[in-house]
Every structure is written in C-alpha cells, then in structure tokens.
Write a structure and sequence with these properties.
The protein has 1096 residues and is α/β, with parallel strands linked by helices. It is 49% helix and 13% strand. The protein is globular.
Length: 1096
C-alpha cells in the first residue's frame, strides 16, 4: 500500500476514496485517519465525521478515544497501532509526539461536545437548526420519523376548501374516477410529497419543461399503419385459405371487425379519419400488450414471409406513432398539471410544518437544500474556480472551520445530500470518503450508489481498496466468493481475503431449499416451507448459542411467519428493533394523551382518539374538530353543576346544561355517533375518562391518592387487554416504570424526549434468545451464526399511481429528464427511446439492489452461514437468481454443507426437551404478567418500583444534587462571568424541573461555598470539569474538577459532595482515591496528585 496517501502539503487537497468490502475494517481505518490528522496538527474541532447510523457514530467515537489513549500513553496494542500509522502515512517516530497526543486526549475528554461526529441526518439537522430555521423564526422544533395519514388528509382538506387549489386538483378526480375512496387521494398527495427532492434538484432547467407543444402539427398518420396491417392480414388469410378472424390474435378479432365497419360507415373522409383515430386510441392498451396483432401459429411459412415481415415493421411504427401522439397530446400536458399541483402541495406543506414546528429528517434535508442558496441568507459564495462554496459566517454557525471531512457509508448518500456536502468539500483540506457499492441498499429512499461509483472522477480522488476481511472465517469467505464471482455482468465483485490466524481457518457453510410452484390447485398438497427445516435444526441443537446468532429476512412479512413458528415451538427470540419505546404501538396512544395533558395541543387529543386503542372514525374526529373549544373546556375546566358524578361530570350533563341553543344543538350531535367498537366504551364515556385523567394528572402519581394517574390510565381504557402480548406488557411496564419516577407530567415528557433514542423497545426474549431482523436492520452488524431465510422474489402488487422518469448527466450536475406520468401511460412512454433507457436503468438499479441485499445478508456471518430458501420452479429453471447460482456452483439439488459448526462457548441446556420445559415455564410467566399486572404493579399499597430503593423524595434529592454539579461544571477561574453563565444554564435546564425558587436557593448556597473557597478557583490553574477517564477495564469515571498547577507540577482532584448523594463519606473517599490511581497511570512527568472532597 502506498505510504504517501496523505500529502503533507497543506495547500493541496488530499482526497481519499476507500472502497471497503464487508468486514474489511473500515471503522478501524477511519479511526486511524482521524488520529493521523491529529498527528499532522489538524485541530480535532475542525474535523467532521459523518456516518449513517447513531450506532456507527457511537462506535467510531469510542474507537477514536480508545486508539488515541493507547498511542498517547503507550498502552495495550499501541505498538500495532503505531505500526499501522507508519505504514499508511509514512510517519517517523519523531512525528508521533506523545505529549501532544496526551494533551489532545485530555482536551477531547474535557470538550466532548465539540467533537464533530454525526449521522448525516444529524449533521444536516445541525445546519438546518443553526442557519435555516432561524430565518423563519423557528428556534425550537420537533423531529419526527414519519408523518401520519392525518397530516396528508389535512392537506387534502385545504385543497378542497380552496377554489383555486381545487380547480388544479380536478384532473386527478377525472383520472382516478374513485371519488368515494378518500385514501386514494391521500396516497397521491403523499407520493407527490415524496418527489419533492426531485423537484428541487430539477429546478427549471430540464428537457420536458420546454416540450409543451405550441401550434405544432400533430402526427396522426398511425391510422394508415393500422390499415396496412389489417390489409396484410386479409392477404395472408387468402394465401392460407382461412378467414381473417382465424389469422388474428384473439384479442384483435373484435377490433378488426369494428375497424372494418368504420370503413363502410361514412363517405366523409375527414369524419371517418377522426373516428378511426378515436377508435385506435380507445384500444391503445390492447395494441401495446405483449404479443402481436396476429396469431403467429397461423401466419408461418415461406408463402407469407414477406407480408409478415412488413406487418412486424408496421406494428412497431404504429406503436411508436401512437406513443408520440399520446406524449404530445396527453402525457406532457398532464405532466405539467401534476407538477403544478405538486407545487401547491409543497407550499401548503411548508406552511403547515413551519406553523406546527414538526419536521421529518427528509423535511430537514429538503428545506436545507432549498434555502441554503438563498441570497438573503448569504451562506453560499463562488470561489476562484467558479464553484459554489460556503462562507465563513456559515461555517461559524455550524461549529467552525472544517479542515478535514470524513464521510462513511457514502454509497447510501442521496444526490440532494451530495449537493449539500459538495459545498463543504471545497473548503476542506482533507477529504476521506468510505463506502462499498455492493452494500448500497437504500435506493428506495434516495441513496445513489452511482455517486460513489463515479466519485473518483467527481472529486479527482485517490482510490484505495480494502479487500481483506477481518470478520469472517475461511468457509464463509471462500463460499461467499464462489457465489458472487461472475454473479451478474453489471455487478462488480472482487474476491475477499481472510485472516491467517489458525482460528479463522474454520467455519461452516450450508444451504437448504424447498422446491415449490407459484400456484397449486385445490387438490394438490403444498410442500412445507423451507424454514421448517431451520426450526428442526434449532430444536435439535444444531445451533446452541442463540444469543450470538441471527435470523435475517428480506422483509417484515417473512419475520412475522418465522416468529409465529418460533413461538409455537417455544424457541426464545429477540425481534431486533432500533425504534424508541415511544414508537411502540401500545405506547403511542398513551403518550399522545399525556402530551395533550402537558401541552394542551388539540392535535394530540385527536391522534389519541383516532388510535387503535380508542377507534374513533371520521365522524367522531369531525365532531371533535367542529366543537374543539367546548371539548377542551369540558376536559380541562371544573364545573359546579348539581349532578356531578363522584369522579367527574358526565358529558351528557355538560351538554344539557349548555346555554347557547345553536352551540348546544351542535354538541348534541354526539348522540348520533356515540357508539364505538373498542373497549366497550361509548364516545361520550371516553371523553369522561379523559376528563377524570386530566384531573389526576395534576397530582401525578400521588401515592396517597386512592386513584393514581398511572393505574387509572391503564384501567380506564383496558390497555393490557387490548395490547396483551408479552412484548406489549413488557413495553407498557417499562413506560410506566419511568413515569412513576416523576410527580410532574411536564418533567416526565421533557425527560423521556431527551432520552427517547436510548429507550429502546423491549422484545419477548431471554438471555439466550436468537436474534431476528431485516437485512436493513442487520447492516453494519455481525454475528457468529447467520441464518438467512429467503422467501423468493416479491410478486405482490407494486402498482403505483405515477411513474417517474428522472435522469442526471454523468457528473450529477444537471437534471436532463424529469417526467411524471400516470402509470397507465408507462407502456406508451417506454416506446420513446430516451425514456425506455431511463426505465431500463431504473429496473437495473432495482436488480442490483437485490443482489446487494443478498451480499449484505451473507456477509454478516463470522463463523457459520446457513441459507434456507423457497425455490420457485419456472419453465427456465428457478425464478430466484441466487438459487440458480447455488445450483451452478455446487452442482447439488436441494442442500449442501461444508465445514463444522463453530460457536462461542456458553452455558447451554443439555437437550431440546430442557428447552421445551424451560419455554413452558416462560409461557406460564407470560400469562401471570398479563393477568396480575394491575394487581401488583399498579396496586395502591405497592406503588413503588419493586426491588428498588427509589422513591420520589430520593429522586428529587438526586436531581438537586445533579443541578448543583451542573452549576459547578460551569465555574472555572473567572468567577464573576462564569457564575452568570452557570446561573442561566442552571435555570434553563432545572428551572421547570425543580422550580425556580429551589434553584435560586441552591445558587445562593453554592455562591457562598465559592466565596469561602476562593483559592480553588484561582486563575493560575488549568481547569477541567466533568472530566472523563477510563480504568484498566474500560469503565468510565467522571471527576468533578481537576486543577493543574503547571509551575509547581501539582494536580488537585476535587469531588463535590452536596449532601443529596446516597453514598457515605467512606464510599466517596474510596472513589476519589481510585480517581487518583487511574490518573497517575495516565500522566507523564513528575506531578504530585492531591485529592479532596468538597462538602458544599
């Protein structure tokens, strides 16, 4: 490998493109690239790293800290790491300055918030938050994963209510002819919004925008071609001694007869011609169907060959001419209508999102790109090479200068993201892009692997290939190589290498597939599914360490089938989810209701009422919206009517006691819609329950109240009966376990929103449970054993309202084509050569992504790889290319295996009988949890977290302690100014949580301490607060304050003791002594270290 990959010339851009196959150590290499930049003198604050997932950002950040620590302090594998640095970058011993690296390590630990490692969505969000959002006076907003259907319904309502918008929408009604089904139009709005990125990228400079015909003479002489074909049919029929009907394809017999009748109907040539044009266009779908107008079996032979050849040519010309006619007269005008409507939808959406301050990650990317070039903002300028680049003001807003930029998983970058990144690349001195075209599996959400394939030319970069796998054993690598070598002429693959270690010379590979037909008659017996063999192998102990194993499937439907069978066979499993508990189906409606109580935002109430738990229909929602003011008043206000119920007031009585006749008349309409199918509650009873809960939410979780909020919300809507699976119960339990720690709903919502990414959904699993996940979820992970189940190619209904023909030039600078058509015109458009090429390119992309998905699945395995496939039989072999490849490579029928199963040792059950017995016990526990949850967890006399010493009083004390530590964290050596900043920060974070009065009391107390201990805050010290260190086991410790006296070579470690901590003084003294021992191992030079507890 070339040792001069990164030039030391700071004036020249260093551009490295790492093409890293699966398991080849790209995180290791990226971490070394980061360290190399530090050695070269690049400030860590000026290095930006972007990757695809939060897990990946955490992994690379940890790896950088780890490598830097090992090299700086010569610990663990520092010699190996230094060797790699020297080989890759040509460093000498004199260039790797340990003292400098130690200082950098301490600086990075101290200023961890200034380390710029993000997901690409997170980085774009940072740009949006600091540069674009303030332009619209948006300073706080909610980031959501996806919009719910109601959002798109609201857009439809706004279109219908506006006469101008509705006029622009009418053509959709004419096209769809499905006016009763509102969901059809909601889907159309959603599909157009999904195209907004294409609209932004296309702008107003692409071919189709200038193609609307202007008084152009329309070519309609396709009638002549149809007449020529039918004339040849007659002549061939005469030669063959048959009737014309016998020569025709069955579908064209009726068309032929009617066409002939038109020839005889009118002497007016012009009128007759127009009727024929109309008739041909009415039958265009039949004309464009597969096959010919004639019956090939009846037209063969030398006697008719010349006429047949003429017909073939006429048929091709006929289809091309009809396509051209339709393109100019119907497709282009409709394309313009669709785009005009789309722009209206975009404007409505933008206004709604700015008003509600709720944005998806896609929204954030879209609006960032849309407004970043706005001249008013002044964020983009033209450099001396006439390229767009960002201004210094822009860089300052997003964290400062960027000297080095590293982009991981580049193959998943969208063109829009690339356009934003390009602005930053031109200002960076060092560019490192890492990716693998073979792992590009996000085309469906805009990922463009061609960007990475052509990146070498786009940025004039230096390509390096990482081909040695450090993940997988020999049998995995060799068999994956066999499968993917020469897999497809358009799919490039280079054989991977494997490690030389003795351990890595082992491994297991095997496959099993079940032959089946795509259809079976009623009296035919269907073969069992291929995964039944997998189930048998799991039960018989072929794989024993379930925790280190994973079943991967293409989609959620296959996972659902397998989880059902695993449940039946009592095999423990974990259905992997990266989703927050707030997105769990049983939690979402409850959380919406809680947010309504906190924020009084009526939208949250509507979302709760529309949820599966309550089951309100459109009529109910309409009633709520029309009577919004009075519904809110009913829920939140107190009343003194004489017939109040014990725990609230009946909705019926609220309405009857209403004064205004017209408003009362509207409210009385609830009686027409009072029936609900869920929970045996009526519509009005549901509102009554919500009112009761609102009252209880004021004194949240008061353990002295007979009725507490947590218990009541479960009971009111019979939550654990409606959501009753073991997984449901566990997630509900976890959610309320968190809620029970708070006596204020606002505090709870703030906390859980801050922590939502860490609060993962819980699955029904035990310690030795087999993992299940989709290919997309598995990307970036590895397991000892991978079991890949493949059902076969998706043959479901993929019908779309629109087909889009979108194309870029070779350098991704300009959009060349952007055409939107209704899907019914797709066959016509494809007869036009340039759109046929685009359509074929899109098909090819989908096919390549299917191969990529298989590659990702197979390369997750470290030791063992087992494949189970459904093999559908066709006339030409199997429908699945991967099955055909296995047959080709291994020359076997339905199964093959090589090697020996190798697993990480664990304590396992002796046989499958023990497994069954154990699972029976688990099932009994499941039932018990479900039935007893209200009696135990929510019982009045046991309203505490079991096996925990946490109480609300202790929790409040703990938070006061955290608040004091947070204040001291801001106090360095400039006491007057530091205190101002500390007070502001403390009130911002803890003011609502603890109350302003308590926070101010704490500030007075802390200021007195600082005044009495002024010497600790002397300006002669170099100070680190909240300083992170790691012990020899890698366990993190946080030191409250470190003072370094450089002149006298003394270090002082301080730990604040606020009186709110549960630990004893002895425990604290032991802890602070441990800090001294750890720090003494990490520092160089003759420093004396002193420790002291500071009692505040």
């Amino acid at each position: 490998m070339n040792n001069d990959n990164i030039s030391t010339n700071s004036q020249k851009q260093n551009k490295i493109i790492l093409k890293a196959s699966a398991g080849t150590g790209k995180t290791y290499r990226l971490s070394l690239e980061y360290i190399a930049n530090l050695i070269k003198g690049v400030n860590y604050k000026n290095i930006v790293v972007m990757t695809f997932t939060k897990k990946a950002t955490a992994e690379i950040k940890d790896r950088i800290y780890d490598f830097l620590y090992q090299i700086a302090f010569e610990k663990y594998d520092w010699i190996g790491l230094e060797k790699s640095l020297k080989e890759l970058y040509g460093f000498s011993n004199d260039e790797i300055l340990k003292k400098n690296l130690q200082n950098i390590y301490f600086e990075m630990i101290k200023n961890k918030d200034e380390i710029r490692i993000y997901t690409i969505d997170g980085f774009t969000n940072r740009i949006f938050k600091n540069t674009i959002a303030p332009y619209f006076s948006v300073y706080n907003y909610e980031t959501i994963d996806t919009e719910e259907d109601k959002f798109y319904s609201d857009i439809l309502i706004k279109i219908i209510e506006n006469s101008y918008y509705f006029e622009k929408f009418k053509f959709i009604l004419d096209e769809e002819k499905d006016r009763k089904n509102i969901s059809t139009y909601v889907k159309i709005i959603k599909s157009l919004l999904d195209m907004q990125e294409k609209f932004l990228l296309a702008g107003d400079n692409y071919k189709e925008i200038n193609l609307i015909p202007k008084n152009k003479k329309i070519n309609i002489n396709f009638v002549e071609n149809m007449e020529n074909i039918f004339q040849n049919i007659k002549e061939i029929a005469e030669i063959k001694g048959k009737s014309s009907e016998e020569i025709l394809n069955e579908k064209f017999i009726d068309i032929f007869k009617k066409f002939e009748k038109l020839n005889q109907e009118s002497a007016d040539v012009s009128l007759n011609q127009n009727k024929k044009i109309e008739f041909i266009l009415e039958n265009k779908d039949t004309i464009f169907d597969k096959g010919n107008i004639w019956n090939g079996k009846k037209t063969g032979g030398k006697d008719a060959k010349e006429l047949l050849d003429e017909m073939k040519e006429e048929q091709e010309i006929l289809r091309e001419k009809i396509s051209s006619y339709l393109f100019e007269q119907e497709i282009l005008p409709t394309d313009k209508k669709i785009k005009d409507l789309a722009k209206i939808i975009f404007d409505i959406t933008e206004q709604m999102k700015l008003n509600t301050k709720r944005f998806t990650h896609t929204d954030i990317s879209t609006y960032t790109y849309k407004f970043i070039f706005n001249k008013e903002l002044g964020f983009v300028k033209t450099d001396k090479n006439n390229n767009n680049t960002v201004t210094n003001d822009f860089l300052e807003l997003i964290g400062g200068q960027i000297d080095t930029i590293m982009i991981d998983e580049f193959q998943d970058t969208s063109i829009l993201q690339w356009k934003i990144l390009q602005l930053l690349l031109s200002s960076a001195k060092n560019i490192i892009c890492v990716g693998d075209e073979k792992q590009s599996i996000y085309n469906w959400r805009g990922g463009e692997k061609e960007l990475f394939e052509n990146l070498e030319n786009l940025i004039d970069g230096n390509v390096q290939n990482l081909e040695k796998s450090y993940r997988s054993y020999k049998q995995i690598i060799e068999n994956v190589n066999k499968i993917f070598t020469n897999y497809n002429e358009n799919w490039k693959y280079t054989n991977s290498l494997y490690r030389d270690d003795e351990e890595y010379q082992n491994g297991y590979f095997g496959y099993y597939f079940q032959e089946r037909k795509s259809r079976y008659s009623n009296d035919e017996e269907k073969p069992e599914k291929a995964y039944e063999e997998m189930i048998r192998n799991l039960k018989n102990g072929k794989i024993q360490n379930f925790g280190k194993s994973c079943i991967i499937c293409r989609g959620n439907k296959e996972l659902a089938e397998i989880t059902a069978r695993l449940n039946e066979e009592k095999i423990p499993f974990t259905l992997e989810s990266n989703s927050s508990i707030l997105d769990y189906r049983a939690i979402k409606p409850l959380y919406k209701l809680i947010k309504f109580f906190v924020y009084h935002n009526f939208i949250y109430l509507l979302e709760f009422m529309r949820s599966d738990l309550i089951g309100c229909l459109n009529d109910h929602v309409k009633y709520l919206v029309e009577n919004k003011t009075f519904i809110e008043k009913y829920i939140t206000a107190d009343f003194n009517f004489s017939d109040n119920l014990k725990n609230g007031i009946r909705f019926e009585h609220f309405v009857e006691n209403f004064g205004n006749c017209k408003e009362k008349e509207n409210l009385m309409k609830y009686k027409n819609i009072d029936f609900l199918e869920r929970n045996s509650l009526s519509f009005s009873e549901t509102l009554e329950k919500i009112k009761e809960l609102y009252k209880l939410s004021v004194n949240l979780n008061d353990k002295y109240e007979k009725e507490n909020f947590s218990k009541k919300i479960i009971q009111s809507f019979d939550v654990t009966s409606f959501y009753s699976t073991n997984s449901d119960i566990k997630n509900i339990f976890q959610f309320f376990n968190i809620l029970k720690e708070f006596d204020n709903l606002y505090e709870f919502v703030v906390h859980i929103e801050d922590e939502k990414d860490k609060l993962r959904q819980i699955s029904s699993s035990d310690e030795n449970a087999i993992n299940l996940m989709t290919i997309h979820k598995s990307k970036g992970l590895e397991f000892d054993t991978i079991i890949y189940y493949r059902k076969g190619k998706n043959s479901g209904n993929n019908f779309k309202t629109f087909e889009t023909y979108f194309n870029y030039d070779n350098n991704f600078l300009n959009v060349t084509n952007f055409l939107i058509v209704f899907s019914k015109y797709a066959k016509n458009v494809k007869k036009i050569k340039e759109y046929e090429i685009i359509a074929e390119k899109n098909i090819q992309k989908e096919k390549m992504e299917e191969i990529n998905a298989d590659y990702v699945a197979l390369t997750r395995a470290k030791k063992n790889l087992l494949l189970y496939f459904e093999a559908y039989i066709t006339k030409n072999g199997y429908s699945d290319d991967l099955v055909n490849k296995l047959i080709d490579v291994y020359d076997e029928n339905s199964e093959f295996e090589i090697g020996k199963i190798t697993e990480t040792e664990r304590k396992i059950m002796e046989n499958s009988e023990n497994l069954s017995e154990n699972m029976e016990n688990i099932e009994l526990k499941k039932t018990k949890i479900s039935n007893e949850i209200l009696k135990t967890y929510f019982s009045d006399d046991k309203f505490k977290i079991k096996n925990s010493s946490i109480t609300l009083e202790k929790e409040f004390k703990r938070k006061k302690g955290l608040a004091m530590h947070y204040y001291f964290e801001h106090i360095l050596t400039d006491i007057e100014n530091d205190a101002k900043l500390a007070k502001s920060a403390l009130l911002s974070r803890y003011g609502n949580m603890l109350g302003k009065k308590i926070v101010e009391e704490l500030i007075v107390r802390m200021d007195k301490f600082i005044e009495s201990n002024n010497d600790i805050y002397d300006k002669k010290y170099k100070v680190y607060t909240e300083f992170e260190i790691y012990d020899s086991d890698g366990k993190k410790r946080i030191i409250d304050r470190i003072n370094i006296d450089e002149e006298n070579k003394k270090i002082y470690i301080y730990d604040y003791k606020t009186g709110f901590e549960p630990e004893t003084n002895e425990k604290y003294q032991e802890q602070i002594n441990e800090y001294r021992n750890i720090l003494s191992e990490k520092i160089s030079g003759n420093y004396q270290i002193f420790v002291k507890l500071l009692e505040v």
